[in-house]
Amino acid sequence: MSEDYILEMKNITKEFPGVKALDNVNFKVRRGEIHCLVGENGAGKSTLMKVLSGVWKYGTYTGDIVYDGEIQQFHTIADSEAKGIAIIYQELALFPELSVYENIYFGHEIMNGKQVDWNETIVKAYEMLQKVKLDVDPSIKVKHLNTGRQQLVEIAKALSKNCRLIIFDEPTSSLNEDDSENLLQLMKELREQGITCIMISHKLREVTAIADTITVLRDGTTICSLDAKTDDISEANIIKNMVGRSMENIYPPREKKEFGPVRLEIKNLTVENPETGREILHDVNINVRQGEIVGLQGLMGAGRTESALSIFGNPYKYKVKSGEVIIDGESHWFKSPKEAMNAGIAYVSEDRKGNGLVLIQDIKYNISLANLKELVNGWSLDENKEIVVANQFVKDINIRTPSVEQKVGNLSGGNQQKVQIAKWLFLKPKVLILDEPTRGIDVGAKFEIYSLMNKMVEEGMSIIMISSELPEVLGMSDRLYVMSEGYITGELTAEEATEEKVMKMAINSSSEE
Amino acid sequence: MEKKQSELVTLLKENVRNYMMYIALVAIMVFFQIWSKGSFFKASNISNLFNQAAYVAVLAIGMTLILIIKHIDLSVGFLAGFCGAIAAILMEKMGMNQWLVILAVLVVGLLIGFYQGTVITRVGVPAFVMTLAGQFIFRGMLSLSLAKTGTIVIAQKGYLALCNGFIPDIPHEGGIHIVTMLIGIIAIALVIFSMLKTRRNKQKYGFKVISNTLFIAELVLIAAVILVVAYVLASYKGLPWSSVIVGVVLFIYNYMLNKTRLGRHIYGIGGNAEAAELSGVNVKNVTLFAFCSIGMLAALSGILYSSRLSSATPQAGLGFETDAIASSYIGGTAVSGGVGKVTNAIIGTFVIMSLTNGMNLMSVDISYQYIVKGLFFIIAVAFDVRTRK
Predict the structure, then answer these.
(1) What are A's interface residues with B at a Cβ cutoff of 8 A?
(2) Which of A68, A226, B155, B256 has CB atoms 3.0–4.6 Å from A231's, for a disulfide?
(3) Does B15 touch chain A (CB under 8 A)?
(4) What number does CATH give the domain A262-344+430-441+456-513?
(5) Which pLDDT tens digit goes with each residue over A329-346?
């Protein structure tokens, strides 16, 4: 194969005050390949892509970007787009209230003289949707599409600009398995059409399944570039390169496994979405014992988060038709998160930025928010004690920060997640519900969170872990439930569970529906 | 020596936004002092400024809470006017005891705040719409209540003293107001005591504190400011009652926001309401509380204003809400919510009222006054936005 590179980034160095985010990075992408860029959070992947797309404009970094054989000087995103480079971000940049076709041609409208030619736009948009295999009416509002479909609209938008290099930043992190599979398939088809794809991802299984080349970054430097045909691209090898050590055990072993009596039992939970009138949970029964980690697995939309929130005081006001929460043998029904907290339940949100943390406040504020009564002395808060508590958590669970006065918004994803968990541990709950505890965080931080979970259950806490990542659920759970379309479709012990079994349960019932 | 300088520099840099307000306030005052050839800092004028600022100051305190939780209250101006009218009618037309009247009017304000807050939190009408409607309604009720009588003149001595009178003094020879000076000295002692206590506490826990030199410099500066203000007031008629009232309200709200769970919850709601709810905060009830509080403060504002004018007029309340909102924003309350301090809102009030007072002193035409205030408002918020990290 001739070495035809569409992109060569040579000796890129980018410094921020006090930090060298990129240090002499070399990154070569062959024309028409799928190139995966992996590395821990903070390794410099996003910074590198921002340099490429012109977010960090020419002159703020050193080194050369050679694209199509020419040195490029991008000053804005528009510059790089004009050359055919597009980025699909994790957080989609669509206008929910506009239609699909308006979104696709936003910013490069099809003109007929001085006016926008809407008819032509719709026809063209339809063509683009065909290309990404999205079968929807182009005039439907984007907000009515699910995340997976919205992402396809973004890709259609990139294609409409004749982009030849598309960068996907964690494209499957918020997709369910089906949509992820579709997306990966689509990337392969784009490759057939001669479009080059760069994918940033934490999901190594997807990376090894799809990549032609894998480049690993660590601490702002290129560690290696692996060719799928000739090099060892096993997950173990990639992880070894990412973290600089081989991680034999992705899931730390637990020293003792002793289960006490049933701590929490959810009985006959049936819940309806008040807006659509559709039942989202049907007769759900779950229990967790003391000292046990129970996994709750299922595809996106299976009802896992809804189950957790329904019993955690039902803050989004689902219509609960029946259901009972039994804690230590006592029956409850919680009308607010506060009541659930008082009874010993804690819920670590899947969306730490959206409803988990107050980003503009500092670490100590966030850690104490759910348990201020612990810090009250008469009417007044003991702010010194608050700092002591926060410092203790920073030390115990290894939150990397200069001080507890750091704003949470400035922390990396993994550290934000640790702050969120610390907040709930401070409440000393009986049952900790972790909703996608490792979403979007790097391998090292994941390991730390798993270790922390082990420590908590060894001390007698009960954990319900909701996760979309099959290996994680299998690796961590003592027992697991599989959900699909609002039903519990299976219950397996750790010994019984295999990926195939769980996947079958997660998908089976949805095909019956 | 070099190390201390760098500490001072970093401290200044980190707090440039906070200090800027004080600098702006001092600059405005000095500017008018020079322009008016020394009239601005006359004891009588400073006393006057305190009395003029009181009704806006209490509103700005309440508005800061509302703005922190990302709501707004446009109704407080005419609600204040209406409450002033109720007070005048109850006292002058119905002969009710003035102190009972004050209590009753505060309760009326609280109830109106409760009603508006209930509709906002339970029905879901946006605060902007609800309180805009409230502005119309209370304006109508104000003119209705004074329709037959026209402006009502208030003659109750105690009531009038609220925003015109001064705290009593012990009888003595000579010009200086002894009790005011005493209060100033006690205030300095309290400040020093509480700052020392905080510092000791921090040291006890082994936390970082600023160096001794800087700490003493800070103490001296604060003490000097209090002393100067106390002396200026004492050399006239003493401390105005209005300042006492504003001081008490400020103390309560500052304590509530910074030292209590309720305060934490308010900042949490402004920062991320959903996260607050999931952390066990009752978002609706806290929001309702904030509207109750501003309702009551609007009533207090109306009382102070009618006391100041010695009458209840149909025009009372016009534009109060804009002054209060401007005060809070000039004082650094974030337009995006979640950030704000009542102490700084008071500084904002003084910035606005110093502008008004100074321009009145120089007989600047009212049209220009509005334009100057507007431009200053833009500059202040622009600075705040640009320096926000």
Answers:
(1) 312, 315, 336-338, 341, 347, 349, 354-361, 365, 368-370, 372-373, 376, 379-381, 383-384, 387-388, 423
(2) A226
(3) no
(4) 3.40.50.300
(5) 999 999 999 999 999 999
